[in-house]
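Q: Here's a chain of 762 amino acids. Please give me its 3D structure as tokens.
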Amino acid sequence: MPSREDILAFIAREREASGEAPPGKIGKREIARAFGIRGDDKILLKKILKELEIEGEIKRSRQGLHEKGALPQIVLADIVSRDGDGDLIATPAEWEEDLGPAPRIVVFAPKKPRPGLPAPGIGDRALLRVAPWRETGGPAYSGRVVKLLSRAAKRMLGIFREDPRGGGGRIVPVDKKLRDKEFRVAEADRGEARDGDLVGVETLSRGRLGLPVVKVRERLGSMNSEKAISLIAINVHGLPDVFRPETIEASEQAKAARIEAEGFRREDWRSLALVTIDPPDAKDHDDAVHAAPDDSPDNANGFVVTVAIADVSWYVRPGAALDREALDRGNSVYFPDRVVPMLPERISNNLCSLREGEDRPALACRMRIGKDGHKIDHSFHRVMMRSAAKLSYQQAQDAIDGRPDATTAPLLDEVLRPLWRAHEATKIAREKRSPLDLDLPERKILLKPDGTVDRVLTPPRLDAHKLIEEFMILANVAAAETLEAEKSHLIYRAHGEPSVEKLNALSEFLATIGIKLAKGQVLKPEQFNEILARVRGAEHENVVNEIVLRTQAQAEYVAENYGHFGLHLRRYAHFTSPIRRYADLIVHRALVRALDLGPGGLPEMSREHLAEIAARISACERRAMAAERETTDRLIAVFLADRIGASFDGRIAGVTASGLFVKLSETGADGYVPAATLGADYFRFEEAHMALVGARSGESFQLGDAVTVRLVEAAPFAGALRFEMLSEGKPRIGRASALKAKAARGKAPKSAAKASRRRTRA
């Protein structure tokens, strides 16, 4: 059995030796093979690796194990500067602060540049293949560009502020990174901009003296308009919101699919009563469902469930204009007033959308489900279908609950009730599988006709939502299983286990409320569910839900599978939304090729290339999430700007040494309460309790506490709210009392000293 030092040396040596070769996974299997470990000794090896991970000596990523503080071979990085020699310098886009400063990467052009790959520059985000830098005193790594993901923004958005003395005005940038800067606009260059307008500007000069001079290129409207607010997010995050001419031309030239074309004949499923069930305002319908009793004698009381998905791969062929732009976008982005789609409207809302009563091509998954909800087998088919009805979630739910309308009444017995009975069966298997059961309500912003906010609500979660969700999960699993069985490459949707550091923090907090959780313990989703069940309805329910959520890792797209922790599945791929997600389109193409289902299949592609695509669309997904979240924050800040001084109920959603973050119950908006405004007491941050605790009084403000706050400031540009705390802190016993008593005796305990040092570092 190798020593711990031998294992660490092996991991480091393998990473360094691979240099710029295609990334190879380094995990337990590779270590066992290198050291000749067999049989029961593998259990001991697993224990050693777990100990090294708990101690922080090694890290686990989608590319396997690597030593503490080391980068994996493929890194998403931001190019931030140039060094003294003029070489570009990048830093990882994601880095854990507890590991110290992010490593610097000197960036080189690829050895064999691909046609059309532009030269990288400052402000770009890129996929880099990195290797340790062998020269002393320089960056930690060298990196070669694999793919540029975004170019530095050439247009800047800002708010035009008119000079009351006349002669133009100034531009206040909306980008938080430029919040301390202003730009000057001459009267001749203001165009039609009026005070308070959101405008796009172009830099004219950057002299050493005075403000940089800019020219207004476009007036986008008043900041009171919701449309302007979504444009801020589009610009700040570099979302491509205008399709290239060749993409539009390709979409306009596309012809509707026929049941027989290009030497391939689809199966005719137009008589099957498939229905779409979506939000009432949905414009693109990419999934339809059907269920019926299984008449096979080997599946008594079982069901045949069919999930049909829009056949986007028929229209979007690999390497074509539509495909290139879809990959650049990665996914559709949804704002309250608009959608920035992955595909042009003629494709997404017309030719591919499973419209009621119209023939549409689809890739269908037919699954046999046992009475206990387990999938017995499945098959994939390339079909022509015709949706029997377009239903909303509420409409379908109302029909099942005894309130059918003219559309759902004829479908109730033959279509809807079989769907619900099949779902009742799948719920049995779901409960046995025990995926992570976090109830996360989503805000929905409703707009007035003029584009401003009407109200914010949290739609109810219906059985209709859960039915569609579970059937889509089953189809996604079936897609991954089929492609693995066919030895086909694919892009997985993966979700890792929580990190050891986060689990230890969770353990420390749970101990403060009487729930024991051993540090270093490997948890499964059902154990998280047991913790959530223990506090359901209790005082600590909200805080435990918040901390369990924050303990979880972020899901991502990968070419090397490591499972989906949250869903408690060994293999999972996204198959059901190819209109709005590029990952699903890749899976569709892989199925078409593996099962010989006609043209449009995945071309010959290495796993390395798929890994690059997976990293790229994962970055697009995070970009979209950030843009959607910031737009919601800005909208609500505008909505609340005329309610300064009003009081609101909420809950503490975040605790730091410098203050509290409070989420309002009415709108879900987040705002900040500085610690200095909490009162005359001095509040210390107790990390284990996730609370600010008064040094003299012992009163506390803890994550999850219900509070009342007063709105004192709203900054719509930044989407920021500042509150004043109206509620008193809760009295604390135990450790807080000990802190108070010892402080009174002039003997600050070690734990208090640590808390003070943490506050200083923050």
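Q: Can you summarize the key feature?
A: Residues 19-23, 733-762 have pLDDT under 50 and may be disordered.
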